[in-house]
Amino acid sequence: MTQTIIVADDHPLFRAALKQAVNQAVPDANTVEVDSIKALQAAVEANPDADLILLDLNMPGAHGYSGLVFMRGQYPGLPVVVVSGSEDLQVMRRSVDYGASGFIPKSAPLPTITEGIQAVLEGDVWLPEGVADKIERMQSEPTDFSERLASLTPQQFRVLGMLAEGLLNKQIAYDLDVSEATIKAHITAVFRKLGVRNRTQAVIAIQQMELDPSEQSLSGG
Q: Where would you find the membrane-spanning parts of this chain (predicted)?
């Protein structure tokens, strides 16, 4: 049976590199390429039996780890490997805490990326050599907020992302092609699930999921 692997990265050149690694790991794979969280959600809905997501942390529609947390909450049976420009151990630790099945640095050579993909498809958790021991000694991140974030529906997650971008209800309703009343209902549900009272608190909460400046590299998340 053909395996479906979704490559989620907003840099075309790196998507091409990942696709090459996928082709080496699984020669007959069906590779689906997306460049935003919105497109990723659509791809997963269109491919409910997908086998793996290769996920860039910093893509349009994502706030750091929020895309990872959301995908793991909505699709717990679908493994996600974070592919990141950061090689900060704290980023790797948090990625694993939030449910990633692997972490591949963008600087890794093609054979290493291929090895990571193969390992996760076989059911393992893959990390760069020597990293597992180091991050085991690090303190885990509290997961209370990530669990709340994971409980949002796909539409609620989209609305939260738009709130974080500063869009008004009217703009969100237009973009999602629904009524303002529907957006107000979504926002009320988002506030309740996240345990916040207003937009400002919701935006501050989602910003907890951002990568710290010190954790980001010049090549992006």
A: none
